[in-house]
Design brief:
Layout lengths: L2 H12 L20 H10 L4 H4 L6 E9 L5 H8 L5 E6 L2 H4 L12 E14 L2 E7 L10 H5 L4 E6 L8 H10 L3 E6 L9 H8 L7 E4 L4 H17 L4
Parallel strand pairs: 1-4, 1-5, 5-6, 6-7
Antiparallel strand pairs: 2-3, 3-4
């Protein structure tokens, strides 16, 4: 049967006739090249439940990690990010050493000049995007852009130089953005109780103070969970 007849037989079957391409003696054409492969890919790419169920769709949230110079912001983001973190570090020059106080971090050789960026999936329904701010005063003009759209901030503090935390605390207090204080542990530094750090920083009671180590993923996750809880507590009822 010619191809035109096969097409006609196929059309007739649409209207309820018993004739189709196969019963009319038409040979079934070869399967289009790549059809099987495409079927396998389609199966692999089948939408996941949270992609089709709006109730389970993941919520993307933005969190800022701030604090003074050399307080551990880049380490914080890098230790918890599930993707390769974006870093904008540059080598410190002799001129910068005259401006930046490196006495507490003498081994520091680089500094963030724009931002750090990472991502963490806390749950199937919650994805955190982390933005680390530069610590030096000359880069503070970028903070407004980095903070825009954030649900809250983690302010890292080094107990050897708590005064470096005040600019970030003042900024978020003024902006009305929820924040927590992560007391980063450095080798050789004395450990202080959270309440002692709260008193030294004159923090209001609702602000969580979380002892942590920016090198250890689990303590970073705990700090982020504390911030998420704090942000939820500040939502209007």
């Amino acid at each position: 049967m010619h191809s035109a007849d096969c097409e006609s037989a196929g059309r007739e079957s649409v209207y309820g006739e018993s004739v189709d391409g196969e019963s009319a003696g038409c040979e079934e054409g070869p399967e289009p090249r790549g059809a099987a492969t495409l079927g396998a890919v389609a199966a692999d790419d089948a939408p996941r439940p949270w992609q089709t169920d709006r109730i389970r769709a993941p919520h993307a949230t933005k969190i800022v990690v701030a604090g003074g110079f050399g307080v551990g912001k880049t380490t914080f983001v890098g230790s918890v990010s599930e993707i390769t973190p974006l870093r904008t570090e540059a080598l410190m020059t002799a001129a910068a050493r005259d401006v930046d106080d490196t006495r507490a971090t003498p081994a520091k050789r680089t500094t963030t000049v724009a931002m750090d960026f990472g991502r963490l999936t806390l749950d199937a329904d919650l994805v955190l995007y982390l933005f680390g701010t530069p610590g030096q005063k000359r880069f503070w003009f970028m903070w407004d852009d980095l903070v825009r759209g954030a649900i809250g901030a983690v302010v890292l503090a080094d107990t050897r130089r708590l005064a470096d935390s005040f600019p970030a605390l003042d900024y978020f207090e003024t902006a009305g953005l929820p924040y927590v204080v992560g007391v980063n542990h450095f080798e050789g530094a004395d450990r202080h109780a959270p309440e002692a750090v709260r008193e030294a920083l004159a923090l209001p009671p609702p602000v969580p103070v979380v002892p942590m180590d920016a090198r250890k993923r689990i303590t970073v996750v705990d700090t982020l969970l504390a911030l998420v809880g704090r942000a939820l507590d500040t939502l209007p009822e």
